[in-house]
Amino acid sequence: MSRGLHCTTCWASFEISQLRFIAEHPSLNSDPVAGEDCMLRFRPSVFDNRGAAVDPAGASCTSIACPKCRCELPRCLLQDPILPISVVGSPASGKSCLLASGLRALRRSGSKLGFSLIDAAPSLNTHIHDLEEKLFPQATSDSNVHIGKTDPSDLSTYKQIIAGIGVTSVPRPIHLTWQDADNPSRTIVFHDTAGEAFIHSNKITPAIEHLASASAIIFVLDPLQDPATRNV
């Protein structure tokens, strides 16, 4: 029996046989579900001698996508167990900055502590790396760096998908591969959601659906946002 999988963006469950591949031929530069700016997602019927899927225009393809929302998935999900972690908190509490700086510290200290933490798919983690570069610029600068709060309309941090309620925005997951000497490798998936999604919500919406599958939840609290604390 084939192993069931879960999309780390829309959390749909599916079998490996249902995976879509992402076309490589430049003429196949749109998809009816993923969008006009995304390459075609297709069910392969032809494979080349290396085992790569061949798209309808004859190009070999290795990138995969969810069969439902058609968002790209890292190939490590095909064999590694996943550990979903959700980062939650009120608007402007510092969730994104904590995540970016925390991941930077983990990557730098891994060799001393006996583990490695690397990008499972670098192209899918560009938004967190961009934030890290703002927080820790390589060159010394006297100018202040403005870090805005997470905005669901920002397509660099959010992805628009077609859900049961129509087109909606969900946070782009961050995929990292954890390896150490005592355990098999695993894929850690972080979800960083705008704080507004947790306010006055009494049901699971697509933007916070990752909470239902999270193995751990990191709650970020900024006491300085509390008027009682500021008045002390």
What does this structure look like?
The structure is a single chain. The chain contains four helices and 15 strands. It is of the alpha+beta class and 232 residues long. Strands 10-13-14-9-15 form a five-stranded mixed sheet. A four-stranded antiparallel sheet has the order 4-3-7-8, with no helix packed on it. A two-stranded antiparallel sheet has the order 1-2. β1 (4-6) and β2 form a beta hairpin.
Please tell me the overall pLDDT. Answer: 88
Total count of strands: 15
Instruction: Give the overall form.
Output: globular
Which secondary-structure class do the elements indicate?
alpha+beta
Q: What's the Cα radius of gyration?
A: 19 Å
**Share of helix among residues?**
10-25%
Low-pLDDT runs of 5+ residues are none
Biggest sheet features:
5 strands, mixed
The helix-strand sequence is EEEEEEEEEHEHEEEEHEH
Number of helices: 4
Terminal CA distance: 62 Å
Major sheet: arrangement of strands: 10-13-14-9-15
What fraction of residues sit in β-strands?
25-35%
